[in-house]
Amino acid sequence: MIKKALLLLVILTCLPSLALGWTLTARIGSPSGSIAGGSPYKTITTGTGYLTIPAGDTTVAVTPSAGYTVSMVTLDGVTLAVPAAGGNVAIPQEGKTSRTLIAYFTAATYSMTANQSAGGVISLQRITPTVSAITTTTLTGLRTGNVVRVTATPDSGNSATSLSVAGSQVWSGSSPTAVTYDYTVGTSSVSAQASFVSIPVVSARIATASVLTSVNTAVALDASGSTSNDPPLSYRFQVVSGDPAAVTLSPAGPGTGAVTSFSASLPGDYAVQVTVTSARGATSTATTPVITVLTKAGYDSAQCVSCHGNRDPAVVAAYQQSTHYLAAGVSCSGCHNPDGSLGHPYLTAPGTSCLPCHTTVTPQVAVDFSASPHVNTGCSGCHYDHTATSTFNRCSACHGSPHPWESLGICGRCHLTHNPYTITAPPPHFNSFSTARYVTSRITCDNCHRAIDEAGVSTFNIYSANRQWGRSGKSDSNSAAYVSFDFKTLGTALPATPATSAGVDCVRCHTTTGYVKYVDSAFQDIAPFEDPVGQRAREMIVCSACHTPTPFLSYDIVDWDTYTYIPAFSRRDVAQVTAYYNYSTAGVKVLNPVTMPYDAGESNNCIVCHTGRSGGSTLRILAQRYGSSGTFWGNVTFIDPHGMAAAGILYGKNGYEFFGKSYSGTFAVHGALGGDDPGACIFCHMSADQKHTFSPVEKDPSGGITAITAFAPTCSGCHDQTVKPIPLNDPAQLEAKRLEYGSALKALAAVLARKGINYNGALAPYFFTTANQALQGDATAFRNWRAFYVAGSPPLYSGSDLMGAAFNLKLLDAEKGGYAHNSYYAKRLTYDSIDLADDGKLNATVAVTLQNLAATDKFTEQDRARAVAWVGTRP
């Protein structure tokens, strides 16, 4: 009985402990955190778990994952105050056997603040995972792993020198342009700041107290007007014209003195330059006007004037208006008693007494005049009164039979004033043989500037067309199209013609004389020509190439008897054009005439030289003759289509067309513009106000299209809101097409480069075995076009097809307007060329190839997107 009582006592003693043990239900309300506690210790990270709690109150740890915070914690539905960073949470038992704790977590957000400083602006923009607006203050709502682009943009005249993010310097240097840094957000808010400094600028100025003085007379030169944002300034003066040994500059510097005193011990013309240097080393220079130093005798005319002013007032008045009196300081005795040996009265007519002075004062004038036949008549033959004013445009007073342009007073524009037998028209009218020139033994001023009216009166004119042409590429006397060779010698003498000879015929398009002979002979005469002895020159394409007759007729000719109509300033009548895509090497000759689709009237003038010199059909003829992968293709220099073959693209005539592929229907609608007169070329390229610039668009210095000048007079007839909705006179859309076109050609070049065929459009023969441009030349020219040939059905990389892909690249790259002239034809040529070059067969894999091409500095990701837009699919 006693044992039973003791057992009952033990049981009753234990019951309170059993009654106080309890369970905490731990639930993760939203993921990315944990609840941990209990005995044994347990961590709950997802869903619901149960923590066994000994009797009494307990503490559990609520912990958010990295990049997250605690958003809410509830205990039996009651919200507890728990820090966002989490921590230990006290859980009272409160006599309960179970309680429920629910923890909610949310992603942490941070901010980035742009701390602005003088001299520039810091901007912030989230770029991943989504792109935010740009701000210059604070960017909020950032999460761990987001990427923020920090851009430090210096103000005009300033440079960025450092950029810091989150307390660490991420860039330092000196940049006048924007600096960017991509920062990956961590687990805290940060700030960004940058340092800017002004770019030192100096503007030197120098004022001269007088530009005329006598020997040993001081003239103040004042550079105190120089300005800078970087004081203090230092000044250094030096003589840059004249004999420095005869000049005293006090002080000369360098030093802080901004004013110096100039004097010269010898007569002559002098110029002084000041170099102004800022505190941080920026420099600027300024040069005085010519300071003419005369002898004291230059001032001795006062005595003569005191008498002759009353006796010969007209003479004195003329003298006092002359350069001699106003600037040169030439006294009366300087001309009338040049050697000082005469007593009064002096010489009435000085004769050639001008030369002793002018040999020193204006030595070139003296040299020119001394070489002229006029030296025997003396200076007064033209400078006939005391003004010493030239009467250069009175040649007929002595020579009779006045030049038709003499009355216009323009003789001095072309003739050296003091030796009219020397021509001085501005370059490139008369250039050396190293550059081309407008005027030659066959091209005269009359061909561009002279017009004759119905009365036979001749006039000299500088037409707006002359100025427009002068701004076009055709006027560039240094252009490779004029100076690469002496093109007048590159022809084949008759009886050879393009229809019978594959010889050189550059003369027909690179010289005016050659062009006129070629088109006037019905495309037969390709003979070279020579300059007269002593008159060697390189010709250019000038007005008389396209216009006839020259001198121009300024009126229309209408002859009803012969039904003849010749408009004023008429263009040359050229027949329907046949392009000769001939080819010739030792033992190989191909004659390949290709006639353009129709007679384009006046535009035939353009088509003659813009069809290219070789066509893809020439390669096909060679493939038929020697096999598409015969040994011929194993050692042959690239066959060049030549540059600017716009007409061939326009009419779909000169590309390499791959066997089995359709190019029908690629005669662009643009080719039919202008009908049979004036034809497409003139209709589009000479429709805007600036006709003789030959451009239907305006471009910025980088070549980007900024305006479509031909839209109103031509394009708008088709490209409207209802028929052809592009480009709607939007240069941005046309510019996008231009860029897509260029990127697609970059893609083709990249595909060929993967085969070791490296393209350089600036250096013949254009394709090389090395990508190192310093090593590119004849020795590294790519010649084995069957190097990758694999026999089969179909064969892979046939020689003609591989060269054909390269041919299309060079053709289209040298024809910058292919995207507009005939985009359909250009796209098909580009697509098929990439398709062939990527794996040797035409299997429509271009889209895959473009996506797999490695991005490089020559083919960027932007190029990839543009290329896909242009030729991702075959049109």
Mean of pLDDT: 85
Strand order of the largest sheet: 4-1-9-6-7
- Helix content percent band: 10-25%
Q: What's the gyration radius in Å?
A: 43 Å
Structural class: alpha+beta
Number of helices: 24
Largest sheet at a glance? 5 strands, mixed
The share of residues in extended strands comes to 15-25%
Number of strands: 43
Give the termini distance in whole angstroms: 109 Å
Low-confidence stretches: 8-19
Overall, the morphology is flat
Layout of SSEs?
Blueprint: H1 2-20, E1 22-28, E2 33-37, E3 42-44, E4 48-53, E5 58-64, E6 68-75, E7 78-80, E8 87-91, E9 98-107, E10 110-115, E11 120-128, E12 138-142, E13 147-154, E14 158-165, E15 168-175, E16 179-184, E17 190-198, E18 202-203, E19 207-208, E20 212-214, E21 219-222, E22 227-228, E23 234-241, E24 247-250, E25 259-264, E26 268-277, E27 283-287, E28 291-294, H2 302-311, H3 313-320, H4 323-328, H5 332-336, H6 354-361, H7 363-370, H8 396-399, E29 415-416, E30 419-423, H9 446-449, E31 450-452, E32 458-460, H10 464-470, H11 480-483, H12 507-510, H13 512-520, H14 543-546, E33 552-553, E34 557-559, E35 564-566, E36 578-580, E37 583-585, E38 588-590, E39 593-595, H15 604-607, H16 616-626, H17 646-650, H18 680-685, E40 698-699, E41 705-707, H19 731-754, E42 758-759, E43 767-768, H20 799-813, H21 818-821, H22 823-839, H23 846-852, H24 861-871
Parallel strand pairs: 1-9, 10-17, 20-28, 31-33
Antiparallel strand pairs: 1-4, 2-3, 2-5, 5-8, 6-7, 6-9, 10-12, 11-13, 13-16, 14-15, 14-17, 18-22, 19-21, 21-25, 23-26, 24-25, 26-27, 26-28, 29-30, 31-32, 34-35, 36-39, 37-38, 40-41, 42-43
